[in-house]
Amino acid sequence: MSERLAVGVIGVGHLGSIHAEKYAERSDVTLVGVHDANPARAAEIAARHGAIAARDLDDLLGRVAAVSIAVPVAEHEAVGLRALDAKRHVLMEKPLADSLEAGERLAAAARTAGVVLQVGHIERFNPVVRELRHLVAAPRFVECHRLAPFAGRGADTDVIFDVMIHDLDLLACLVDDEVVSIDGVGVPILSGNVDIANVRLRFSRGCVANVTASRVSLKRERKLRIFQPDTYVSMDFDARSALVARRDAGAVLARGGPVDMSAIHVETREFTGEDPLAAEIDAFIAAIRGGTSSAAVTAEDALGALRLASRIRASLEVPDLPPERS
Question: Which domains, from first to last, does the chain contain?
Answer without folding.
Answer: 5-121+276-295 (3.40.50.720), 124-275+310-315 (3.30.360.10)
